[in-house]
Protein 1
Amino acid sequence: MFACAPSKEKICGKIDDSIRNYLEKSASKANKDLTIHALKTTDFSLVGAGRLDTLSKESYNKKITYFSQRYTASGNAAKADLDSINYYAKLDSLTTLQIANRWQDPQVYYYSKTYLSATMGTVKTADTMRYALDRTFKLIPIL
């Protein structure tokens, strides 16, 4: 007798529950009110750890570019921006090493496509977001 894989709807529901829990914990930690108007995972794919590393590197590079532009625009006077550039450059280098050293990683992750409409404090969000979760549906923050 073989066990059937859970249905797509069931997995999407578990992903939604995990995202909701993560958002609630984040709001509580930041001491902000949270109102979730809509939260619906419409699709997901299974990805390997290498894909998550690539997403992290893309995020780091965007932040490096952002802080570099701010640093240049401020007449090179903003030391905090330079510190941020160095911080994300270091994270990018560490991720590059991690990718090079990971020749075989059997872990598979869920990569969801989720519509979120929410208000946290005074910040409103209404967009299709991407979230990464491990096989136990624990959300993996990708900067």
Note: The first strand starts at residue 34 and ends at 48.
Protein 2
Amino acid sequence: MNFRIFNYRIPITLLFLCALTFAGEFIPYISPGLMLAWNSRKIQTINLKIGAGVAYNPTQHHAADMGFVNLTFGKRTCIEQTFSNLDYRYLDVEGGLFKGFFVGGSAIGLAFYKEENGKTTPVPKVGLFAGDIVFVRTDIVFRKDKKDIDIGGMLVLPINQYVFKAW
């Protein structure tokens, strides 16, 4: 069976919508990003992503100033072409909290590897990140044979309605 990213759009969208039920007032945004990292095999990787989601005010009794949830599509590529079999596309649901200017969060989703026979194989993917505009991030992909772990820095530029009003 040849899996495609769109076979998973319904469960991922449902997870995203369930996360939105905890939100109050929404501020929609898009969030492009670029990550430079090294994986567990000491291979340098570059990761391009685009996320779309909402920031929201959490409940009154929450210690955080603001929360967010988004759907993220991306592609990780090994800089050395000899390791192109480790490249993958991914789809994540990301969420986290703001406290002042500090952001912490996590991601859960699927990575899609292209096999030598041309088939696309989905595997589980998780991530953790912390920072503000520049983040320290780690992603773990659970392949059949072993875990593929990326650790690096990610530059993210969230764009929302307030950015446009400031211009």
Note: The beta strands are 26-39, 44-56, 66-78, 88-99, 102-114, 120-132, 134-142, 147-156, 159-160.
